[in-house]
Design brief:
This protein is of the alpha+beta class. It has helices at about 15-30, 45-50, 75-80, 90-95, 100-110, 120-125, 160, 205-210, 225-240, 280-285, 290-300; strands at about 5-10, 35-40, 60, 115-120, 135-140, 150, 170-175, 180-185, 190-200, 215-220, 245-255, 265-270. The strands form 3 sheets. The protein has a 5-stranded antiparallel beta sheet. Helix 1 (about 15-30) crosses helix 11. The chain is globular and about 60 Å long.
Length: about 300
């Protein structure tokens, strides 16, 4: 008798469309593995979700991204139902999603971080909270939603902050020059480090991440061997500091402006990395001989809940 799996996707966050793609890709892979798959487009109606999970599946693949699906909310529901699910549990998910709290955990683990401050929108509009250039980002969003750089002589960003609908808390972070590096962690090992080079955009934003041709992925990252080893170490230590499980992805900046080996700076950890055709973790896994379907298989076999 084949095992049953419910794939949660969609949701109500700013990353809904990406989640739908991730969900359909993973559901198709699970079907090739022989699972009986139920695709569930998750809404805020808890009763509808619980009903959709009847009869209870053997396992849940959580392909949700962003608020509601990546911040501990859906994880707590699945724990209450006693259903094993992929990726991190409630605490690691909630902490990783709230960037200021995650940075406190990373600081306690002595991981390299950029200077940052948590301020209100009003405070940010009143005066620069640190010397430019600096990065503005929501306190609790993923996929670079709402992220922008404030540079010398640039005041066009103020309208974006005035019209901000991503919460009153704003994270301001020292801009780190250099290159975009990401590290995939699978269980207890760092799989590899990949460099991302946005093609059209000036930064690795939402469009560069998910639009076909939006960025170039260089795997393995063409950086100094010592820097590469440092990136893997930081990614794995960040995964462990948060208490993540399953697959996670650490995003870093590599400041090589003074030459190599340069300085690695940890930005954040994504506990529910994208699983779309342009996503980073599947690219890194493929380089190590792990096909997409085998990556998905490992993830569902690693699934668990707190009860």
């Amino acid at each position: 008798m084949s095992r049953t799996c419910a794939v949660l996707m969609g949701g109500w966050s700013a990353e809904r469309e990406v989640s739908l793609v991730s969900g359909h890709e993973c559901a198709a892979a699970l079907e090739t593995l022989g699972y009986q798959v139920t695709r569930i487009d998750v809404s805020r109606d808890l009763g509808t979700l619980v009903a959709a999970l009847e009869p209870r599946p053997d396992v849940v693949f959580n392909a949700l991204h962003g608020r509601g699906g990546e911040d501990g909310t859906i994880q707590s529901v699945l724990d209450m139902l006693g259903l094993p699910y992929t990726h991190s549990g409630v605490l690691a998910s909630a902490v990783a999603m709230h960037k200021p709290t995650a940075k406190s955990v990373f600081a306690a683990a002595h991981l390299p971080l950029a200077e940052s401050a948590l301020v209100t929108r009003a405070a940010l509009l009143a005066a620069d909270v640190m010397a430019r250039p600096f990065v503005v980002k929501p306190a609790s969003e993923g996929s670079s939603v709402g992220v922008f750089i404030v540079r010398d002589g640039d005041n066009s960003w103020t309208d974006a902050v005035r019209n901000w609908n991503l919460g009153d808390e704003v994270m301001v972070e020292r801009y780190v020059p250099g290159r975009e590096i990401t590290v995939a962690v699978m269980g207890d090992r760092a799989l590899g480090a990949l460099e991302i080079r946005p093609i059209a955009a000036t930064m690795y934003n939402y469009t560069a991440k998910y639009a076909p041709g939006g960025s170039e992925h260089l795997m393995p990252a063409p950086i100094h061997p010592d820097a590469y080893a440092d990136a893997l170490d930081i990614g794995l230590r960040a995964h462990r500091a948060l208490g993540c499980r399953g697959v996670s992805r650490a995003d870093l900046r590599y400041d090589d402006t003074a030459g190599e080996p340069g300085r690695m700076v940890l930005l954040e950890v994504n506990t529910q990395p994208g699983m779309t055709p342009t996503s980073l973790v599947p690219d890194i896994a493929r380089h190590h001989g792990i096909a997409f379907v085998d990556l998905v298989k490992w993830m569902v076999e690693d699934a668990r809940c707190a009860s």
